[in-house]
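Field: COMPLEX_INPUT
Field: COMPONENT_COUNT = two
Field: RESIDUE_TOTAL = 656
Field: MODE = joint
Values follow.
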Amino acid sequence: MLAQILALVVFVTMFAFIVWDRFPKHYVTLSSGALTSILVFGFAMRDAEAFRNTIAIQNIFTKSFWYAAGEHAEQTSGINWATIIFLWGMMIMVEGMASAGFFDWLCLKIAKLANFEPVKIFVAFMILASVLAMFIDSITVILFLAAVTIRLARTLKFNPIPVIMAEIFCANLGGSATMCGDPPNIIIGTSLGYSFADFVMNTGTIGAVSLVVIIIYFYFTMRNRLQDPGDRVDPGSIDVDVRINNMKEFMTSTIIFGIAVLLLVTHSFTGLTVAFIGVVVAAITLIAAGKKAATLLKKVDYTTLLFFIGLFVVVGGLEETGVLVVIADFIAKVSGGNAYIMIAIILWVSAFASAFIDNIPFSATMIPVINALAQSTGVDLATMAWTLAIGTDIGGSMTPIGASANVVGISTAGKEGYPISWAVYCKELVPGTLIVLAISMLNIYARYL
Amino acid sequence: MGQLIISVGREYGSGGHEIATILSEKLNVPLYDRNMLDQMAARNGIEAESLHQHEEMKRRGLVRTVRGHSSSVQDSVAQLQFNFIREKAESGESFVVVGRCSENVLRGNPALVSIFVRGDEEAKTQRICRLYKLNRLEAKAKMFRHDKKRKAYHNYYSTMKWGDSRGYDICINSSLLGVKATADALYEMILQFVEKRKAEESKEELA
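Field: COMPLEX_OUTPUT
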């Protein structure tokens, strides 16, 4: 009982500090992880085995961590090293692509193909945000897309705020479609043993339906606010430089991106785990970068990786002490074992929680909960996993603080003199989020229950 | 005269803004206050009010930071103004700037003279009553509200505390001589500073 209380106190305190946003988040999770290790595993449980399970370093040295042909590489407890190694590899690849000018070129090329017409750019950038976010972290996608949108807005005299908000929403939606699109999906996939293809066939198809609906919704609600007809600029007079400065670097980064996508799409057939893919992609990028390799390594966002490590230890504390089983039992009791109610609870609670708190710790906490729920109620685990992924990924779009992409998009716009307040943001994106969540719920009901 | 940047921090009702205006007129240099956002709004084709309502304000409500990016619109507007001040200073332009943590943003810049203007509560109250046609109670409430906001904003984005004499070159009580005479006195001090700097530069050139 004491161990449960201590684990819960550390967890709640950690969350409060994350929401407070006063100290770097990785300091908060690492300190909380240390407290969990000392107070929960050491003082209350006196259980070295529980600590070893949570640190889970031994997993890295098993064959199944790197190659898992014909079996699911599952790890529901402790530090999810597969997620951390995969994210590290993808971060290096994305840094390589950014330094080669890939994203600038792609955004401007698409704007040119849209004939520099604001409404066409608006729709094209929504699709681009979704597609890129399926494979690349949404922070990078929005960082480049928002910057290019502002550049184009100044040249073409349109209002970039609705465009950036639609891009944010679509990046979050695109991220929900694949295993590597959003950190919660990577954690869900590696923890429960789902493949890239599993995500595409489930959250991907649900996301595709939602994307079509949301593009139509945004088109009709935002198109009239994009530009005053009097500000229209003749596309023929536009002089935007769509040029690749270093063709060799550009081609190399494009090929590496292609390899990464290929390895991810086929990993359920090849048996290569996401950790293996992350290392391979990072190795190829670093070898191809030559002298720039050290710079790429330095640019990796190590604070996020440390944040994950601390977080997994704290969640491991909750799991080892059985707190999460109590939460699962509570959900089972409230829903009366009814799968429809259970799915609705998971979806809407995940969505509203992710709108205000970081969806990464939330999903990491919920994975063992849905696992326990599946065992106690018999409801299909996969259905709950897809519901959790959609709830956490989409719900984050609801508020400015709900997802990393929102923060980066708002900040990029604000620093260029286009302020996006809470009121403006919520007025635009809350209805869209609710629409997509409702569509997704109906989709899940129709398809799985 | 060489580049000269005067930053004026002020208590509400102390006449700091009026002093800054007089200095900018006497020195014949531009005055930057909330008007710096007007330029940005005009460039972006948006209402200046949408920026003004968030300026000189500490971040509010639930905020999240990701890789140095903040979701707070107050943070964004503050950074926008800090960058504006930095760019103006780097361009070699001389100017007077009111508030906006400018003495902190430009700390270490040899062209900077930082001033903080305070005032006696009674004098400030009377001035606010006169300017805004308020009764004493309303004037005091307004003064308290604005100073609280400025202090919170300044202390959040600066290394030194608002009104702490160690953070400024000159701290002055405008109630002692009155706003106009304080501005004249400061102008004389600034001229002396410019003369001294000129003399030092000539000496260095000769050496």
